[in-house]
Amino acid sequence: TQLLEQSPQFLSIQEGENLTVYCNSSSVFSSLQWYRQEPGEGPVLLVTVVTGGEVKKLKRLTFQFGDARKDSSLHITAAQPGDTGLYLCAGVANNDMRFGAGTRLTVKP
Amino acid sequence: SAVISQKPSRDICQRGTSLTIQCQVDSQVTMMFWYRQQPGQSLTLIATANQGSEATYESGFVIDKFPISRPNLTFSTLTVSNMSPEDSSIYLCSAGDGQGAVKLFFGSGTQLSVL
């Protein structure tokens, strides 16, 4: 069972600041996904990355998959209060998906 | 994408009783999963609900405690049996189409409190 480590576990920043969340593993994944979850709701898929070195942008969010497909990062530019939530990475290997522990982000106005 | 309806959204139950959670998907999906999530924490996979056969359980979860049904490609249930306060958690249903890179869609969860 592959282990996904996310850092930081908690992050509290002011509106307008930039931040990066990391997802690391010793295992190689066929794909990696990022989800955001708000209180009282299920996780919502933000992006899927498949190719080593791949970079995807979703408005102010930039996702990168490591060259070796073992790690990923999520960068948010000019964070807004609406970005507040639990960010989860999930790695897929051999049709088995595992979630990281999550990063709880709070963006203060 | 798939829209998943899960019910009940929350319940408060007495120790020793059982609760069945229902999950309805608006389209046929290959894979359905049940997760447990402690408040503010990540997701732990309970089992994969297989259509027409017995569910596949993860380590630490057993069929007697968490019986699962999946009678067709759009519906599944999870029962939490003989509940104890340690079962208090959020239970999430998810579905994936298995086409290419796996993508999961989640229900809004069932907040279970056991007294």
Low-confidence stretches of chain B: none
CATH 4th-level superfamily of chain A: Immunoglobulins
SSE order of chain B, as H and E? EEEEEEEEEEE
The portion of residues forming beta strands of chain A comes to over 45%
Structural class of chain A: mainly beta
Number of domains of chain B: 1
CATH architecture of chain A: Sandwich
Radius of gyration over C-alpha positions of chain A, nearest whole angstrom: 13 Å
How many strands, which pairing sense, and closed or not: the largest β-sheet of chain B?
Answer: 7 strands, mixed
- CATH C-level class of chain A is Mainly Beta
- Would you report the number of β strands of chain A? 11
Ends of chain A: how far apart?
40 Å
Specify the overall morphology of chain A.
Answer: globular
Overall pLDDT score of chain B: 91
> What share of residues of chain A is helical?
under 10%
Order of helices and strands of chain A: EEEEEEEEEEE
- Taken from the alpha-carbon principal axes, the silhouette of chain B is globular
How would you state the average pLDDT of chain A, rounded?
93
User: What is the CATH class of chain B?
Assistant: Mainly Beta
In CATH, what is the homologous superfamily of chain B? Immunoglobulins
Tell me what you see in this structure.
- The complex is a heterodimer of chains A (109) and B (115).
- Chain A is mainly β.
- Chain A has a single domain (5-108), classed as Immunoglobulin-like (Sandwich).
- Helix content of chain A is 0%, strand content 56%.
- In chain A, strands 2, 4, 5, 9, 10 and 11 form a six-stranded mixed sheet that branches. A five-stranded antiparallel sheet of chain A has the order 1-3-8-7-6, with no helix packed on it.
- In chain A, a hairpin with a 2-residue loop joins β6 (55-58) and β7.
- Chain A starts with a strand and ends with a strand.
- The mean pLDDT of chain A is 93.
- Chain B is mainly β.
- Chain B has a single domain (8-114), classed as Immunoglobulins (Immunoglobulin-like).
- The radius of gyration of chain B is 13 Å and the shape is globular.
- The relative contact order of chain B is 0.34.
- Classes of the chains: A mainly beta (109), B mainly beta (115).
- Chains A and B meet through β4, β5, β9 and β10 of A and β10 of B.
